[in-house]
Amino acid sequence: MSDSESLKTRSLVLPGALRATLPAARWEEVTVGESGARVLRSSRFMLKIQPKRIHGTLFAEKERLRWLASRIPVPRVVAYHQESGTEYLATERLRGIDMSHPDAALHARRNTELLARALRELHALPVRDCPFDMSLRVMLAEARERVGLGLVDEADFDGERAGHRARDVLREVVRTRPDREDLVLTHGDACLPNVIVAGEFVAGFVDVGRAGIADRHADLALAVRSLRRNYGEEFALLFLDTYGRALVDEDKLQFYQLLDELF
């Protein structure tokens, strides 16, 4: 199934604190991606709205966007607001289209190579001053909590795990946990809808709420899966070749795709 989007115009009533920041605009619903937030866009801005959560908050994404801004291309934060148990995050809209868009698929080879190089550059950045720990210790603790609270959408599991229970997937995750992590600065959800391309350049990364220090395969696994779904198997293989096969562990690719089922 393609990650490509469909749009429809929706009425929108903003809290007073945001009306002063965001001008009146024609907002369109964006259904691409799987963040769980309501996402809208105008000609200049993107707006995310979601209930306040234990994990995966828009506050956490806002903090990451501000930290990443001097390091990689990401949208500028315009406003953040929380009211009555709901979070709002407004950012500037990057120019371009996401890599899952049908028009982007016309340039699948170019985009695949761009994605591989962009992630290689991201993973090469220093991690010593990164305040966001997304290592397995953190992610497994959150996965256990999500399973315990019944927050995992079992109906959304990949085909090979259709019909499985979240607790069984968690058991398999714990059993197959890698012995060591190759820690780098990661995007955290490196799927095609979260990479904006403008011609021959990556204009920026979006949906960075899970960015932080983690094994590079946390990004590679989701990129491979997204490329396979949107462009086809040959481009998943091209991605790994362009990124550098010497850095790729096939077992870790499978592990991080499995772990992602719980998020």
UniProtKB/TrEMBL annotation:
UniProt source species: Deinococcus peraridilitoris (strain DSM 19664 / LMG 22246 / CIP 109416 / KR-200)
Residues in Aminoglycoside phosphotransferase domain copies: 28-255
A single GO molecular function term of this UniProt record: metal ion binding
Residues of the signal peptide: none
Family from the record: Belongs to the aminoglycoside phosphotransferase family.
Keywords, comma-separated and alphabetical: Antibiotic resistance, ATP-binding, Kinase, Magnesium, Metal-binding, Nucleotide-binding, Transferase
ATP-binding among keywords: yes
Catalytic center residues: 189
Gene Ontology BP terms: response to antibiotic
Name of the protein in its database record: Aminoglycoside phosphotransferase
